[in-house]
Amino acid sequence: MVMRSCLIGLLISTLVGAPVQAADTQPLGVVLQADRAHLGAGEAQNGASVFSGDTLTTEQTGTLRVRLGAAQLALLPNSSAAMGQAAGATSALLERGTLIFSSTAANSIEVRASEARIRPTTAQALAQVTLVGPLEFLVTSQRGTLEVTIGNEVHTVPEATSYRVVVDAWAAGDSSQRPAPSGRSRFLLIALILIGTGTAYGVWRALSSPDRP
Length: 213
Known about the structure:
By secondary structure, the protein is an alpha+beta fold.
């Protein structure tokens, strides 16, 4: 009787724990196109699943495009991004190089660059982020509006606008846990140009062309 009770208890605990474990292992997305690119320690293959914690990288002449629910992400040559989840959205931490993303739903993806978090605030978005250094990056909105946040400070990048973002060195680290000095911005947005059919759009069309293998 004791043995039977133990077995029933084990079975119940297994059934209860199974959905939680399954939810934790749900993929974030799938690789659509990979050329001289890597998923974690292995070579990225078309159709491979992408999970939270995976790192995507491209070689000097490589490219990679991934579908992530309502968003898509592409890495240009010599780029790297670590995948995760943040506040209901898929997140990508840009570690080096250039990342292009598109979305069909607001806040469906969050790109982290330096100390900043970048999200689309409109349903249709196409944007490019290039990491220049630990405290500097370029952000371009080809389509839609973006929100750039550091700590509690928020700036908007309108459609067809490109900015150079320089993060105040004071803000490096866990800046959200302390207020900024009076009158001091945590980062500086410098408008570069208003863009027409810009780089992000051209590259995105090339990456998503049906003629590509």
